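A quick aside before the break. I want you to see a complete sequence-to-structure record at least once, exactly as it would be stored in a machine-readable document. Don't worry about memorizing anything.
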Amino acid sequence: MKDFAPALLDAVRRSQRVLLTGPEGPDGDSIGACLALQRALRTLVPGVAIDVAGTPGFRYSWLLGAPEMLNDNKVGDYDGVVVLDGDRHRLPKQVGRSFAAARWTGLIDHHRSSGLDGYTLPWLEPKCESTCVMVRKLLATWNIALDRDYAEALYTGIIFDTGAFRYSNTTASTHRVAAELLDHGIEHWKICERVLMERRLPGVRLQARVCDNLRLLANDRVAMGVISRATFAELGADEHDVEGIIDALQNIAGVELAALLVERGNERCKLSLRSRGGVDVAALAQRISPAGGGHAKAAGASISLPLAGALVAVERAVVEALGG
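That is the input. The structure line, written in tokens, reads:
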């Protein structure tokens, strides 16, 4: 990071337009990191246009800068593209094209499955609990003074990736960073409610449908849920309502591995995986799809197959992963 911070700032200064982006379907850590970094770069290099790609969904729409985030079809050409909290293989279609055409590219990520190839400026820190913690380090290096808006964005990412400090990636350092953010007057309980607890009514019905149709495999050690486009339409739900359902599957007693397969259309599906530790789901996601990866206990993949074919491939892979 010592060399990365000045190199990134220099690259931005030599640009006219820069795009910050997460993977397709960005989560709280990706969104919080992008918005905090966007604000910092706009402060440090006011003459450069800094955009953020992604659709924040209702859980994150209250964050400063979230309403300005660009849908994929509004993304144009950029001098530089920085990927946060994911890798270049899981970018939305138009963002991927912008990435390929950019003069320089960057990576800020903590997923050990992310490779360094294909980036001009990569910063990978697999031992870090969240990308927002990495961005906090950048802001400190650049002498950016925190305020409530920065703190809300960064806290959002930290609680998302630590499960409100429940996951094993939480350390004493995590709590020290969180305490620093609390010193800026954020209402941490409200952020937890918005990011981790609140659901739209269609989302509640969607989770109920997934649980009603739950598939138990490998002697009930695997819990697998499936969501089709038809189910979204029937319930009035969208992909933002999916967040959190995988955790309900993982919390079933006796389940060692949880999987949630979501149909995205155009013969593409999104897979989420969770493990209690017995299976490295980052490695499993990469075996299932080249566009897969994440952490040992939480990972995902984009699968270029129709739902029926993806379901067969995923069921076979998760059962084999548990030796069944």
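Two observations worth writing down. The chain has a mean pLDDT of 96. The first helix runs from residue 4 to 13. We'll return to this after the break.
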